[in-house]
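Worked example 3 (structure in, sequence out).
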């Protein structure tokens, strides 16, 4: 049986390889890397399948936000348009934790949001959970979106300074 395919997208090569090596170390997943949004789109196109339950071999993307040319949030929006209907999970792995970026990421239905420097155990547990059962994609997306809605509500009730 083929191992699930994960793509790590980050312009910082050293960091990309670090994440990829952590994932490879458990020997459960195949990993490919992309150092730009353009390269990530090439990989997605390359791994698109004509038949099967899922239309793309890439099942999960670990995505950085801050990249040149096209940032991760723009990539995420474009990927959701181009691959609409395909269950490709996205975990944001980023140094940015501000409200605006959180809002944009979570409103585009990510399955997780991890800040750098990342905790390898947390990352692997999130990946394992994503691949644990068929509905995990939906469950995780709903959980993150619920947090998104909670944060929106909190910001409405916070006094303005």
């Amino acid at each position: 049986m083929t191992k699930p395919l994960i793509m790590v997208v980050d312009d910082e090569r050293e960091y990309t390889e670090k994440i990829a090596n952590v994932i490879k170390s458990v020997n459960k997943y195949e990993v490919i890397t992309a150092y730009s949004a353009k390269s990530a789109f090439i990989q997605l196109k390359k791994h698109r399948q004509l038949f099967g339950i899922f239309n793309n071999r890439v099942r999960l993307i670990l995505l950085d936000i801050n990249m040149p040319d096209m940032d991760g949030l723009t990539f995420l929006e474009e990927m959701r348009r181009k691959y609409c209907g395909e269950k490709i999970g996205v975990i944001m792995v980023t140094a940015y934790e501000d409200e605006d970026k959180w809002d944009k990421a979570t409103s585009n239905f990510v399955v997780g949001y991890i800040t750098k420097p990342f905790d390898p155990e947390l990352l692997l547990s999130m990946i394992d959970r994503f691949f644990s059962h068929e509905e995990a994609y939906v469950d995780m997306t709903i959980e993150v979106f619920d947090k998104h809605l909670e944060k929106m509500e909190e910001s409405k009730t916070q006094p303005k300074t």
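Notes: The helical segments are 13-25, 37-46, 72-82, 99-106, 120-130, 136-157. The chain has one domain: 5-157.
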